[in-house]
Amino acid sequence: MLKRRSLIKALAATGFGGSALATLSGCQVTMDGVKASGASAAKGPARVIVVGGGFGGSSVAKYLKRFDSSINVTLIEPQKTYMTCPGSNWYLAGLVDANYITQNYDALKTKHGVNVVHATVTAVNAAGKKVTLSDGRVLDYDKLVVSPGIDFKYEAIQGYSADVIDQIPHAYKAGPQTELLYKQIRAMPQGGTFVICPPGNPFRCPPGPYERVSMVADYFKKNNPTAKIIVLDAKDKFSKQGLFVEGWQQLYGDMIKWIPASEGGKINRIDAKTKTVYTDFGDYKADVLNIIPPQKAGKLAFDAGLVNDKGWCPVNQQTFESKIHPNVYVIGDSCVAGKMPKSGHSAASQGKMCAASIVSALQGKNAPTAKNVNTCYSLVGSDYGISVAAVYELKEGAIEGVKDAGGVSPKGADAAFRKMEANYAYGWYKSIAMDLWNS
Amino acid sequence: MQKTVSRLAKILAIAAIAPLSLTAQAGEISNAELSATTCFQCHGAEGKAAGGAIPPLAGYPEAIMVQQMLDMKSGKRPTTVMGRHAKGYSDDEIRAIAKYLATLKP
Fold it and tell me: I want to staple A226 with a disulfide (CB 3.0 to 4.6 A). Which of A39, A70, A145, A191 is the partner?
């Protein structure tokens, strides 16, 4: 098998330079010897703009450069540092510190040659292939990738709004919200009640709310053993449910009470001042209240007109190109990716598939059709890990799990097995952070 | 004769398409390479050690990896999560990915 990158390097080393390189990557050579991609004929290297520096955006930016270092890749991300949602529940328990789950964009800049611009995109002109930044600049692109994550449907819960998140955190975009919940858990009176309200499907990180329950329980068990946790769920079942419930009983006895939607878990409204949640089956007064609202694609997806009537972005599930705007790609939580869950691991996998599709299109080559992957570890306790995994293939245009592959950890496994999966959970974080930000 | 020619044409047509599924033409990104990059998410960037409990894959001897993956796929080799992953790939895909990972520098 021919190794493309080594071949490019070898050819470059022979001094044939531009023409050999241009031929190899399927580009045309212009009069002055500057190569131009098919998409941006005679204008120099292809320009790809990536918006959003989370798991999806960082992955696509890095892998565009890995697959073709001649592409001009610009990553636009307002924040200089990024606290990841994965690992943020471990932080709530005090198992890792904030630094452990905080990443930055230095390696993408210095080691991979990505132009990192800390700004906000204020407008996308899909017809004119331009984006406008908060600093007033207007950038042209040949291909645009957006990975804007999620936004909240605050209006879906009466009494909850962006105005009260400083008292009642969602903590479902990591950062100051995570810090707030961290402090509230620690300030909760002995024997107090923590109420958490997970949303209906689909939402970011399906096991996330239940890992959070586990991690808050881990903290309480050590520091506030008479505390109670009440889960008022908008659903009747949830991700890795059997495994979580088994772990909760083993580790936390009767500390956790999960109430499904059909048995009174569905919330009607909340009173922010008194931290009271009202349901058809009764009222719950919380000492610490964590509302995770229903979700939709990130704001940029709406601003750029990339969403369907359900508030998510339909895409070609092979290339991740928008079904609405050509040359615009949507990856990660915002896109409709068949059976793939909205997770950091999914987003990173999609970023690689999308990068390979874009590079192949710009070079006029056949695009690979590799399988997407998801692996989600959750900690039920500090030494107790569980996982769900899947390998995905495209079937009639839709991403589906490969039959008989994937699934969750076995029920009833021994402590050594759970400990091994906990170690792998920490190992997963180190590896994916290395893959996207630290190498 | 006519039949033989048509059969030969079919075989040639299949032979022409088949390599695309596992190995790429010159300059193309292969499925094996792209799949390998998804392995990096748990096993470290470019298959290099990330410092956690999950083993690195760069330079892993090809034949050993193929055998281990096939054994994990069949259940002969006990695993936590890898059996669930291995079942997602054909034996040929496993061989191609192992071949690519073996070329990476540890």
Answer: A191
